[in-house]
Amino acid sequence: MLMTNFLQKRKSVRNFKNDTVPRDALENIKLLMNEIKTEESGISFSLYENGKIVAEGLKGKAGYAGVMIEAPHYIALDIDNKKPLNLLIGGYCLEKLNTKIVDLDIDTCWITVDNVDVNTKKSIFGEKGTGIDYLIAFGYGEKKKLFDPEVTSSRLSVEEIVFAEKIGQPISIETLENYGVFDVFSSVRYAPSHKNFQPWRFVLKGTKVEAYMVKSDEDNRSLIDMGVILFYMEEMLKTIGINKKWTIDLKDAGNYYYIGSFTL
């Protein structure tokens, strides 16, 4: 599956069937969890096969508009110390895992539980589960009703997220096309973000792409979102023959945080 197509079609499932995921697929997911965990420090995953316990415990406390997303299974992400770098890594790794699960033809949905009280978390996830702030609900989605309207969020234009040399300085579409990255930036706009804030900004300096994050009152959530989009960009660039990683160097940059750079 091309990553650009994945992003443009990416939709969270909020209504799951009761059907459980087959044992061999669950074992595969466990292997994926362990594989990603060994690649990065500062994060850990836990699989909750009995989704009813999680769904019941979080009713009225998490989900969308106060309605918990009920699924047959959940994966929890625990981020050590909530340090900025770990939050960034957490978003990157959780979406990497999410994408691999979607590739197994399994439906998913992110759920934020950072505002759930400590006692509730302990009752669901155990004494060591108080640091869990994000879940992936997964299973098989119910079929959409005929004529069910699609709900989409507005997206910033390429010109509003990508700049030349410094933030605020316009970049031409021709320049992006010459470097072969116009389609990448055009597609990356579809990445999900908390409250559709879209905190990412990019600056092209020759063959170097710099990533920035807009500051706000919810920087922790924006760092998670930045981790997600860094993962997407790496994967999309692979489709045009660029197989590299971001160089992360978190630092203050006025109204933004400088996240890191990527060489095309």
What's the gist of this structure?
The protein is of the alpha+beta class and 264 residues long. It has helices at residues 3-9, 23-39, 51-57, 84-102, 118-125, 158-161, 173-178, 182-188, 219-238, and strands spanning 43-48, 73-79, 107-112, 132-139, 162-164, 200-205, 208-214, 247-253, 256-263. The strands form two sheets. The chain has a five-stranded mixed sheet with strand order 5-6-7-9-8. A four-stranded antiparallel sheet has the order 1-2-4-3, with helices on both faces.
Note the main attributes of this structure.
NADH Oxidase; 22% strand; alpha+beta; 264 residues; single chain; 2 domains; five-stranded mixed β-sheet; 9 strands
Q: What can you tell me about this protein's structure?
A:
The chain has two domains: 3-139, NADH Oxidase; 158-263, NADH Oxidase (3-Layer(aba) Sandwich). It is 36% helix and 22% strand. It contains nine helices and nine strands. α1 (3-9) runs parallel beside α8 and α2 (23-39) packs antiparallel against α4. The mean pLDDT is 92. InterPro entries: Nitroreductase-like, TM1586_NiRdase. This is Nitroreductase.
Helix/strand layout:
Elements: H1 3-9, H2 23-39, E1 43-48, H3 51-57, E2 73-79, H4 84-102, E3 107-112, H5 118-125, E4 132-139, H6 158-161, E5 162-164, H7 173-178, H8 182-188, E6 200-205, E7 208-214, H9 219-238, E8 247-253, E9 256-263
Parallel strand pairs: 5-6
Antiparallel strand pairs: 1-2, 2-4, 3-4, 6-7, 7-9, 8-9
